[in-house]
Design goal:
With about 270 residues, this protein is mainly alpha-helical. The chain has a domain of about 180 residues: MetI-like (MetI-like fold), CATH 1.10.3720.10. Helix content is about 75%, strand content about 0%. It has 12 helices and no strands. Helix 1 packs across helix 12. The radius of gyration is 23 Å and the shape is globular. It starts with a helix and ends with a helix.
């Protein structure tokens, strides 16, 4: 009976992975297809990877816009979110719970509600829709995720660490910069990666805050769907993202394994 259950679980696991990875495999396959149409036997080529750099189709400009917004919003959201998490952690338990409720509202809020809300706010401000409004929107929806990433790490720190730094002559800012931040670096990086990924991936909020002239890749794809101007260079762009993600995960896991081995060796020597 146990063997049968293991086989059933194995089959279900394989089916699950096929469902998850088949679309990724398909888009990578068609990124090397020479035809604009979806066919399986029209040869191998890099034409659509070259097409990314074709200025006339607007994709390169959309990619540039996407990366600019993602990088700047990630930096701002990570800085603000990290210090917000440190501030929340310093509060009393009851106030911390209240602040986390406020922090989690934008997280569980549907994107359509957030997008329309920001559209209304920006419409009342003396600011033109475009990169500034999209940038502010991406910073806004990324901050709560950075807070959620950093706060658990802060809870694991020694409660006396900050006070010890103050007793040794550090100012509050120095204690945060020299003691607290180095101790939570991994969670800060994780929060930054989440913010960057969400910014690149976003469509709904960007749609309401970008205006007419400014487009990221998501909006560019949306504007081309159903038209003859749609370029399979999008497949190549998405394939590059897939490859970059795989390489990044591989490097991250490799570094984690090496750190774990060094830690185990150190513990073995000291014991």
């Amino acid at each position: 009976m146990m063997k049968n259950n293991k086989w059933i679980l194995l089959v279900l696991t394989i089916i699950g992975y096929i469902i998850v990875y088949l679309p990724l495999i398909m888009i990578v396959y068609f990124s090397f297809n020479k035809s604009e149409r979806i066919h399986y036997d029209l040869g191998f080529g890099l034409i659509w990877y070259k097409e990314i750099f074709n200025q006339s189709n607007g994709l390169l400009q959309a990619i540039t816009n996407t990366l600019q917004v993602a990088v700047i919003s990630t930096v701002l959201a990570t800085i603000i979110g990290t210090f917000t998490a440190i501030g929340i952690h310093s509060l009393s338990r009851s106030n911390r719970v209240r602040m986390m409720v406020l922090n989690n509202v934008p997280v569980i809020n549907p994107d359509i509600v957030t997008g329309v809300s920001l559209w209304l706010v920006f419409g009342l401000l003396p600011i033109s829709f475009g990169m500034p409004t999209m940038l502010l929107a991406h910073v806004f929806f990324s901050i709560p995720f950075v807070v959620l990433s950093v706060l658990p790490k802060l809870k694991k720190l020694d409660v006396n660490l900050f006070d010890a730094a103050l007793d040794l002559g550090c100012s509050r800012f120095q204690a945060i910069y020299k003691v607290i931040l180095p101790s939570i670096t991994s969670s800060v990086i994780a929060g930054a990666l989440i913010a960057f990924t969400m910014s690149i991936d976003d469509f709904v909020i960007s749609y309401f805050t970008a205006g007419v002239e400014f487009q990221n890749v998501s909006l560019w794809i949306y504007s081309k769907i159903g038209r003859r101007t749609f370029s399979p260079a999008v497949y190549a762009y998405n394939s590059i993202i897939v490859f970059t993600t795989i390489v990044g995960l591989f490097v991250f896991n490799l570094r984690t394994i090496k750190k774990r081995r060094k830690r185990n060796e150190k513990n073995f020597i000291t014991s």
